[in-house]
Design a protein that fits this description.
Largest sheet of chain B: 7 strands, mixed
Order of helices and strands of chain B: HEHEEHEHEEHEHEHEHEHEHHHEEEEE
Largest sheet of chain A: 2 strands, antiparallel
Helix content of chain B: 40-55%
Strand order of the largest sheet of chain A: 1-4
Strand content of chain A: under 5%
Low-confidence stretches of chain B: 1-20
Number of strands of chain B: 16
Radius of gyration of chain A: 20 Å
Number of helices of chain A: 10
Mean pLDDT of chain B: 90
Strand content of chain B: 15-25%
Oligomer: heterodimer
Shape of chain A: globular
Low-confidence stretches of chain A: none
Structural class of chain B: alpha/beta
Radius of gyration of chain B: 21 Å
Chain lengths: ~300, ~375
């Protein structure tokens, strides 16, 4: 029984990362109907940006020390990482997706371009930084608590809270603000919306800023929990988060959020009750079953307003 | 695509070797990228240091004539299929006399088949899985075997931790990790009774979260956890176990011994033990000289892979020297080198003295090291066959 609660805790943490990444997929898909396959690698870039920001602020590259305490470094690293990662996302949009969109290319070509961007990010990292792994510094003092047989760390609680907080904020932005309204409108009809005087290009950029900064945040939190960084770390988790977003109902951010946690729970629970070799087999069979019953995903609706 | 590659290989295979008689070409199949890049780096550094040392003396002397040494370093990306491709390239296109590597068993087991089929001598410095050399007369190795290493770990853990319950967490897709985990389980259960390995859990390629497996392991309350895993995964596992409240000991195996373990794992790995090929802290004699030279040149203490690559390369060069002279006919030369390697009576390497048995596996000692508070790998005990 204790094991079960412990595993629920494990699953909440693991699901948080899937959810955070799935939200990014979902935002871009919702607005542009584009599956941004580079998103997993933007997450990886976010992790490296977080690494370099944190180590720079800790004074590891210069003789000059900023004299910041570790918690202060973390407080500064969060916004810097999110801003810089958003920059990477917007750059990709500007360089790769927008020209194709302006020329009216078929969506298929944009998806292929996205795959390429992901590979370019991975291999650029490999070429520039080398294959050696990097260890993310401990920014917060880890403390381990045990309550009723369930063990958790402060970091784990913070990760789970961050995922819920981000979801709440994103949900508010999309359902309550004018920008959110514009995003939903573009999702509804991208060709009629410019006629209403809504600057589509700006809204698309904002979408990428939101999605990529979430990936940056996820990269930071991820590398604090799993502090071994390497160029291919985003690929697998990105694909899985994409599947989670589809099962949740891609285009609806509630779906992406729930889908991420669903996959996290499935993976952890399969390992908890079956031999660990069966993890992906059982987890993805269940997801497949869900999709075959409800092809639009849990929260999805057939071709109406998305996002 | 495949035909294209074959054509290129076939076409290039016939080029004439201008000064064939004067250049000794060896191939190195090592992981310069992929999961364990530090292993590839150490291998290349050690080999390059040896080559420069010999070239500084005018070259390798064979039967009174000095020969130039040429080492070709190829990246196997830590993948079995790339290792096979790279082996074929070195054998057919670069026409190397012998191959050093691949390092880990995951690549050395399939690569050994290629070497044997193509009648090219190969020596893996670091592979410990028996299958790499089994029934392959052309394949040798410089490291001891897992069936020997596993009992060393079992005996040490039983004595040191007073243990009669063990848990194992291993990488399923890695021949080395899986093989060693199974040898360990069998040996531990034969000494402590059936069911004394209370948890035997695995994980897949590229997994980073082990919390479910560790929850299972911790619930079974073992006396220690055996981790026959690569150093990059060790860093994650040790940390996640500590997050789940584990304060007990870990016992590791030789794949822990990378120079990068401590940068990734930090303080959490201190105080744990692992079995390995040599202990850098407190070494003496030739081993000490090697460590000092390497440290001065590259700026860090050489790990076991560097030491074993040095020994393996020296074994090949010694075999080439004892052929008494090369004919220039690649096929005959390779056969002569193989025979000379098999005939080596006693080799005094920096990882200890050794000789080959009938399978091409060395008979040599293992050491158990402790990661001390300074993060050095400190000699604890030595176990000989």
């Amino acid at each position: 029984m204790e094991s079960l609660f412990q595993n629920i805790m494990n699953a909440l943490q693991w699901g948080s990362f899937y959810s955070l990444i799935a939200l990014g997929y979902c935002l871009v898909y919702g607005v542009l109907r584009l599956i941004n396959f580079a998103h997993g690698d933007i997450f990886m870039v976010g992790a490296f940006i977080a690494y370099f920001t944190a180590t720079f602020l800790m004074g590891m590259y210069t003789d000059f020390s900023f004299g910041l305490s570790n918690p202060m470094v973390l407080v500064l690293t969060i916004p810097i990482t999110m801003i810089l990662t958003a920059g990477v996302g917007v750059t990709i949009e500007r360089v790769a997706y927008r020209p194709l969109r302006n020329k009216g290319a078929h969506r298929l070509y944009v998806v292929i371009t996205a795959l390429m961007c992901g590979l370019i990010l991975q291999h650029a990292n490999l070429a520039v930084l080398g294959a050696s792994r990097r260890s993310f510094p401990d920014l917060v003092e880890r403390s381990v608590y045990t309550i009723g047989g369930v063990t958790f760390t402060n970091l784990r609680v913070a990760t789970i809270l961050a995922a819920f907080l981000v979801f709440a904020m994103l949900y508010t932005i999309i359902s309550k603000t004018r920008i959110g309204m514009a995003m939903r409108a573009i999702s509804y009809d991208r060709f009629a919306i410019p006629l209403m005087g809504i600057p589509v290009a700006t809204i698309v950029v904002i979408t990428f800023v939101l999605g990529s900064s979430l990936a940056g945040l996820a990269g930071l939190l991820y590398s604090m929990s799993y502090p071994v960084l390497e160029p291919y770390m985003g690929a697998m988790i990105g694909w899985k988060a994409f599947i989670a977003a589809v099962v949740g109902g891609i285009g609806d951010i509630r779906g992406a959020f729930v889908g991420g946690f669903l996959l996290g729970f499935l993976e952890i629970m399969v390992v908890a009750f079956f031999p660990s070799t069966f993890r992906d087999l059982i987890a993805f069979s269940i997801l497949l079953l869900i999709l075959s019953i409800k092809p639009t995903g849990i929260f999805g609706m057939a071709q109406t307003t998305k996002i | 695509m495949i035909f294209g590659c074959l054509f290129v290989l076939g076409g290039q295979g016939e080029y004439s070797r201008a000064d064939a008689s004067n250049t000794i070409t060896l191939g190195f199949v090592i992981p310069l990228t992929g999961d364990i890049p530090k292993v590839g780096e150490s291998s290349r550094y050690a080999a390059e240091m040896l080559r420069e040392e010999i070239m500084a003396q005018g070259g390798l002397e064979i039967g009174g004539v000095k020969h130039e040494l040429r080492f070709i370093y190829e990246d196997n990306e830590s993948k079995p299929e790339s290792a096979v491709m790279t082996m074929l390239k070195l054998i057919d296109r670069d026409r190397v006399l012998a191959i050093v590597g691949p390092q880990s068993s995951k690549q050395a087991v399939p690569a050994g088949q290629v070497a044997n089929d193509n009648r090219t001598p190969m020596i893996s410095p670091w592979s410990t899985n028996p299958d790499a050399t089994l029934n392959r007369p052309w394949v040798f190795r410089a490291a001891f075997l897992d069936p020997f290493q596993a009992p060393v770990a079992v005996d040490f853990a039983m004595k040191q931790f007073n243990a009669d319950k063990a848990a194992v967490l291993f990488a399923l897709a890695n021949d080395y990790s899986k093989g060693l985990a199974e040898f360990f389980r069998d040996d531990f259960e034969s000494k402590n009774g059936k069911g004394s390995v209370v948890a035997f859990e695995s994980y897949g390629d590229r997994d980073q979260d082990f919390s479910a497996q560790l929850t299972k392991i911790l619930a079974a309350q073992p006396d220690f956890i055996f981790l026959p895993n690569n150093y990059n995964e060790v860093a994650l596992i040790v940390r996640q176990a500590s997050d789940l409240g584990w304060t007990g000991p870990f016992m590791g195996a030789d794949a822990w011994g990378s120079a990068e373990l401590m940068t990734l794992c930090g303080d959490l790995c201190k105080g744990h033990y692992f079995s390995t090929h040599y202990a850098a802290a407190g070494a003496t004699g030739a081993t000490k000289d090697f460590i000092e030279k390497y440290q001065a040149k590259y700026g860090y203490t050489p790990d076991d892979v560097a030491a074993l690559t040095w020994d393996a390369t020296r074994l090949v060069l010694e075999a080439i020297q004892s052929t008494g002279g090369l004919s220039g006919n690649l096929r005959n030369d390779r056969a002569a080198i193989r025979d000379a390697m098999a005939a080596i009576e006693e080799f005094d390497g920096i990882t200890g003295s050794m000789r080959f048995d009938d399978e091409g596996d060395p008979i040599k000692c293992a050491v158990v090291v402790k990661i001390n508070d300074a993060g050095e790998f400190e000699f604890t005990e030595s176990v000989c066959p």
